[in-house]
Amino acid sequence: MRTAVGIIGAGPAGLLLSHLLHRQGIDSVVLESRTRDHVEHRQRAGVLEQGTVDVLRASGASGRMDRQGLRHDGIELRFDGRAHRIDFPSLTGGRSVTVYAQTEVVKDLIALRESAVLFEAEALAIDGSTIRYRHQGAEQTLECEYVVACDGFHGIGRSAIPSIRTFERTYPFAWLGILADVPPSCEELIYAHHERGFALHSMRSPQVSRLYLQVDPDDELADWPDERIWDELDARFAMEGWELRRGPITERSITPMRSFVAEPMRHGRLFLAGDAAHIVPPTGAKGLNLAVADVTLLATALTRRYADGDESLLDAYSETALRRVWRAEHFSYTMTTLLHRDPHQDEFGYRLQLSHLRYVAISPAASASLAENYVGLPLSS
Ligand code: RFL
Ligand code: PHB
To answer: Residue 43's pLDDT is what?
Structure first.
């Protein structure tokens, strides 16, 4: 098989890249190791930056998102038993975020690119601009002009860049995430700082809540029966006059927290995009948005290359993308260390967290900085 751009991975990065290229008349094939059903039901992100929404809208992929996505003009920081709202539009010149699940973004993009995705096709190796892969028990090759590895943190793309440097931080905690069939107990997301640990109240729809609890990285799901999860959420969100609604838990998982960056994001005709090149802890809601920013840059660069042979944007891709990546790394790290209880941290560190949170709550400058990073800086910054 032959194509212009061979893409490994049908997550948001690979699917959106294929869609953006298709709109410019550039041929691509997406190889995905898992089944369509698996990819469409993997529970992950929920917050789309304004820039991500703009890209989906401009590319004609936003029909359902425009109908079902929930526009959010703020978040709540809850600490010391009190609520502090960060208002996005007034702090960022009118910007906001949209709550629309990654599973739905992926379903929408697969519907648009169905004919270009080969499911259950596992990339085995990248030799120059040829991808070797296994499909239906047989080894095959995909001959490409360019290869883009959008194959996530555990993919093979990164290892095909010989000069790669990696930067990493792990954290002494993990997130236990649940989906529950119960209307959200809040209108906006709540990020709660508590001496028992961090908790986050998010949502998927007016009927479905998404909640997260900081847990020990060695904890297993068996350690967390339903009642313990709800009791712990109750304790961490506790605030006078506020109650958490409980309902049947339909999905649960534990995710470790990690910061990771690989540099550069290009080697010859091979490019990395999304989680294949970088991971952020989810506290800043940045992972999916970074993946979208990477492939938006890459689609523009490849379009220019196919239009008139100009490779300057492809040459600049890694450096341009990494500037945004490091901004998101810093923001995600800051939110993570601000809000979680570090088991190795002493009371001094805990007091510093509270002081920083109070500063964000009272200072327009500090809350504007948080808001501008949360809604996302412009793509060109
Ligand atoms: P993905 O989604 O991991 O997709 C990679 C795809 O590549 C496939 N693959 C291969 N295919 C063929 N051959 C191989 N050898 C292959 N190896 C791998 C995989 O099967 C998969 O389908 O990466 P992508 O596209 O870069 O997208 C990144 C996002 O998924 C990720 O950054 C976000 O989910 C992170 N994230 C969040 N991001 C946000 O922007 N906002 C959020 O609110 C948010 N919350 C979250 C999150 C991630 C979480 N977890 C589970 C890590 C909340 C959580 C709990
Ligand atoms: C989610 O809705 O899954 C979500 C929201 C905000 C985050 C992380 C995850 O920071």
So the answer is: 87
Task: Return the best residue to mutate from 43, 44, 200 for the ligand 2 pocket (most ligand atoms within 8 A of CB).
Answer: 200
| pTM (whole model) above 0.70 | yes
* CB atoms closer than 10 angstroms to residue 21: 25
Mean predicted confidence (pLDDT) in 349-378? 96
Total residues belonging to the chain:
381
Residue 381 confidence class, pLDDT cut points 50, 70, 90: low
DSSP conformation class of 156? S
State the average pLDDT over residues 222-227: 98
Is the CB of 285 within 6 Å of ligand 2?
yes
Pairing of strands 28-31, 117-118: parallel
CB within 6 Å of ligand 1 — which residues?
A: 8-14, 31-34, 39, 44-47, 102, 122-123, 150-152, 155-156, 175, 177, 255, 274-275, 282, 285-289, 291
CATH architecture classification, 2-58+102-168+258-340:
3-Layer(bba) Sandwich (3.50)
Q: Is the CB of 283 under 6 A from ligand 2?
A: yes
For the Cβ of 202 lying below 6 angstroms from any atom of ligand 2, the answer is yes
CB count in 10 Å sphere of residue 116:
20
Distance, CA of 45 to CA of 37 (rounded, Å): 17
Quote the tokens at residue 45. Answer: 């992100």
215: β partners: 174
Under the banding of pLDDT at 50, 70 and 90, the label for residue 139 is very high
Domain boundaries along the sequence of the chain: 2-58+102-168+258-340
- Which residues fall within 8 angstroms of residue 113, CB to CB, at 6 or more apart? 15, 18, 19, 22, 30
Q: How far is the CA of 43 from the centre of ligand 1 (A)?
A: 10
Beta strands in the chain (DSSP E): 5-8, 28-31, 47-48, 70-72, 74-79, 82-87, 97-99, 117-118, 121-127, 130-135, 138-143, 146-149, 165-180, 190-192, 199-205, 208-215, 249-263, 266-267, 270-272, 278-279
- For residue 380, the model assigns a pLDDT of 67
